[in-house]
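Troubleshooting: if your tokenizer reports a length mismatch, compare your output against this known-good record of 81 residues.
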Amino acid sequence: MDDLTALQSLGLELPSPAYIVGAIAFGLIGWVAFRHGRKQKKPRTLWLGVALMLYPYAVSRTWMLYVVGAALCAGLMLDRG
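Known-good structure output:
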């Protein structure tokens, strides 16, 4: 427990379960979009997939994770046509 207290004193916190679930879900959606974009030769879908896989590393707030993820997924839905 001293290790956890020491990390918290440095300003480091463990992510919430909601954040972990969201990061995994959006990462999987991004992986599927990346594979689909690569097979179908759709560069926009490919790069949206890459963005979905990588942006959780840059976002630390749970609400922001879901907002950005929903926006990128909406971009995938609009790119479908």
